[in-house]
Amino acid sequence: MAGQSRKWMILVATIWIQAFTGTNFDFSAYSSAFKSVLGISQVQLNYLAVASDLGKVFGWSSGLALMYFPLWVVLFMAAFMGLLGYGIQWLLIRNVLTLPYFLVFLLCLLAGCSICWFNTVCFVLCNQNFPANRPLAISLTVSFNGVSAALYTLAANAIDPSSNAIYLLLNALIPLFTSIASLIPILRQPSLDPLPTDAVRRDSLIFLFLNFLAVITGLYLLLFGATTSDGTTARILLSGAIFLLIFPLCIPGVVFAKNWFRHTIHTSFRLEGSSFILVDADDLELHKELLSRHASSIGPIGVGNGSLTHLLSDNGSVIAITRQKTGEIEGCCQRMMVKDQLAMLGEEHPAGVLVRRFDFWLYYVAYFCGGTIGLVYSNNLGQIAQSLGQTSNTTTLLTLYSSFSFFGRLLSAVPDYIRAKFYFARTGWLTIALLPTPIALFLLAVSGTALALHVGTALVGLSSGFIFAAAVSVTSELFGPNSVGVNHNILITNIPVGSLVYGYLAAVVYDANISSGGLGNIMSESAVCMGRDCYFLTFVWWGCISVLGLASSTLLFLRTRHAYDHFEQNRRSAQLY
């Protein structure tokens, strides 16, 4: 029983780690000051943002470290990488020392790598302590990574709201302090026995409560995260946010309310699924068995013109054979819809097979032209606000993006809670989630008002947050749960590539408008662009690119819809027997 209590302490510690280690999201809070102190161009500043995102490419190194060191050692290695990377950057922005640009680039790369190491530690903790509810644990904790910028804004306002450099100091120290606070639960990690069915359901009830508490936390940060007030009020607001993060330690008391929740809420939702892995091993095997029976009942080849026949091969994969009507010429659109079409969910795709799948590249383009644009937008938020004369609202915009990114991450779990009453393919939800991005970018292109900037920032944050949280789930469902680690790392290579391409595009447009005359100012030896034209073409280009991502996601949905529907029909049929 003590082990069951300690696992919830570990979950809370994991939430803390995620909430305080998303340090890449507050880059825009100090980027303008960083650019001014270093005396660099917008293109060079973009390369520093790319360096932070490039750390994701080296995320595999954390797995290698876990092969040789205990989990708590890897945690502190990540903390000290962040301390070194951000700490020296803080000394730079304070003019305590000077370094060549190349070394600053490496410091940003090191800081970005530390974030990936923290994420790996959190994933392992959830995997070890919640084997039965692993997807719920991972989706909940990952969501808190979206509130990091809002929490750091609160902390900065409580200490010194006039200093942009304070963000770098906080980025260096807070993850280390969080690691120290999380050390005791991690060291006392229990060896858990398999849970009975009732205990698994009880745990899922607690996760539902934690998601409700997460919404409260997000609303609190949205309302008070960027409030500019005196130091005392700011410290009180920061204390309130910390209280909301500590409150889940009272989880044992929540168990006493399980009967009320079970009768009023829990029975209204089906929690078998999750926002991370819809296809578990048992459902997948059942799905294959039902497909095998279906193939046997209709014979080796389906009868009828244009019919779709499912066959089960020796390795358990499904082959879709489409027979054309006699004399009918298949059109280009039809070929695009059925060629190499995914016939079932959960089929394992090794890396070599993955990169040859048309569906994977549709997914890659959808992510590259959707969620990654949202991340680059957040990196440029400081310069966007500055160019529109909204420098004083930078922290407000940062909190707005952070809070709505958090809500987007939480919303990614909603399809699983409502699947018993309304089922829709997750690739369809992904398409819906991409819609706000082009709307926001075109809104920003046509209007430079403060209202448009706030609305656009909120929409981009909501959209990108949903995509970031749902991505692992979609990867697992389409290309196999056992291969998700490798396959998802291949997918997220689009982030540093997109950060470079989109950031460079924005920087070139920005610098070009400085050179065009009448739009530039020279401040602290670095060029600053003022006016709507600084980002007008960038928003237009980003908006058009995001439309391409939306089209790619729509095509992916149309190609995979039948596989999702077939899986859900089989799952419901199995529940009747």
UniProtKB/TrEMBL annotation:
So which residues are the signal peptide here?
Answer: 1-21
Q: Which residues form the NFD4 C-terminal domain?
A: 349-564
What topology in the membrane does the UniProt record assign? Answer: Multi-pass membrane protein
* Lipid biosynthesis recorded as keyword: no
Tell me the domain of life. Eukaryota
Where does it mainly reside? Answer: membrane
Which keywords has UniProt assigned to this entry?
Membrane, Signal, Transmembrane, Transmembrane helix
A single GO cellular-component term from the record reads: membrane
Question: What InterPro entries would the database entry show?
Answer: MFS_trans_sf, NFD4_C, Nodulin-like
Where in the cell does this protein reside? Membrane
Q: What is this protein called?
A: Uncharacterized protein
Give the source species. Fagus sylvatica (Beechnut)
